[in-house]
Amino acid sequence: MNAPGKDALLCLDSVGIRFGGLQAVGGLSFSVGRGQVVGLIGPNGAGKTTAFNLITGVYKPTEGRIVFEGRDMTGYAPHRIAAAGIFRTFQTIRLFQGQSVLVNVLAGLHLRTRQHWWQGLLRTPAQRREEIQLRSQAMEVLRRLDLESVAYEDVASLSYGVQRRVELARALIAGPKLLILDEPAAGLNDQESAALNRTILSVRDQGISVLLVEHDMNVVMNVTDHIVCINFGRKIAEGDPESIRNDPQVIEAYLGRDDDEEDISTNTTVGGGA
Questions:
Q1: What is the pLDDT of residue 114?
Q2: Residues 6+ apart with CB under 8 A from 61
Q3: How does the average pLDDT of the chain come out, rounded?
Q4: Do both 138 and 231 map to the same domain?
Q5: How confident is the model at residue 6 (pLDDT cuts 50, 70, 90)?
Q6: Cβ contact 20:27 at 8 Å
Q7: How many domains does the chain have?
Q8: Angle between helices 125-144 and 160-172 (to 10 degrees)
Q9: What is the reported pLDDT for 5?
Q10: Which end of the chain is more exposed for a tag (fewer CB within 10 A), N or C?
């Protein structure tokens, strides 16, 4: 698939941010098309997670624009960005330990509930109807991610890979238009990574756009339509997986890694961190 054009869902236009005298991200421009999986890659400290934080409102850009569905959302607060349809997962799992899978997934619906807190206290008929509807929606998402059998189990008792899927289910139930995944394959074994690949592709097939940072190149090369590579906060290459795999600047950006890290051309894990 070619790079998304003017009809892109998300567009970063020369976005940058400074922390004191440090230019963490500078002049970064790329787009995510509707129903497209875009990978954002780069060596350690390249600015990938910073870019995610700019898109989701954790940081406010000091330069450039962030446009979503044709609307300039530069500097919007995180809750406004989430309400617009951008949701994310994180490098580290952020589930409610001691709570069931179902409760954790239902937490993703907090922006979609219509009843007031006092209706929950009084258990009004409208509140009970909404609760039944939301539970039905949550169970449907769990079925799609093969999590229905563990719906009532404590997330703390589940494997790391299953907890990752629970976190993904919580993001999906919110009805995202753009799903941002921050190293979703971190800590997964080969079988779990293969399952993640299938899940990401199924999300795309539902018409949801995906932007992911990932160091496992097996995942990146197998699920992305388009890849953006950054280094020192600036874009150095952009294109389809095959062209990125063979791009001299991309290969050079990955030089100087630790001895146990392998070249991008081997489709294996590279780097770590953002």
A1: 53
A2: 15, 16, 17, 54, 74, 75
A3: 85
A4: no
A5: low
A6: no
A7: 2
A8: 130
A9: 52
A10: N
**Which residues are bridge partners to 212 per DSSP?**
39, 181
Q: Do 195 and 263 fall into the same domain? A: yes
Say if 201 falls within a structural domain: yes
Distances (CA, A) of 228 to 25, 46, 198, 200, 222: 14, 12, 21, 18, 15
pTM equals 0.83
Tell whether 182 and 270 lie within a shared domain: yes
Instruction: Give the residue from 213, 229, 216, 232 showing the smallest Cα distance to 47.
Output: 232
Residue 233 tokens read as 């906060």
CATH number at residue 201: 3.40.50.300
Query: Domain of 249?
Result: 1-85+176-274
Q: Which of 32-36, 232-236, 269-273 has the lowest mean pLDDT?
A: 269-273
Final residue of a domain: which of 152, 173, 194? 173
Lowest mean pLDDT among 41-55, 214-228, 254-268: 254-268
First and final CA of the chain: distance in angstroms? 26
- In the three-class reduction of DSSP (H, G, I as helix; E, B as strand; rest coil), residue 28 is classed as strand
- Asked whether residue 189 falls in the same domain as residue 254, the answer is yes
182 pLDDT higher than 60: yes
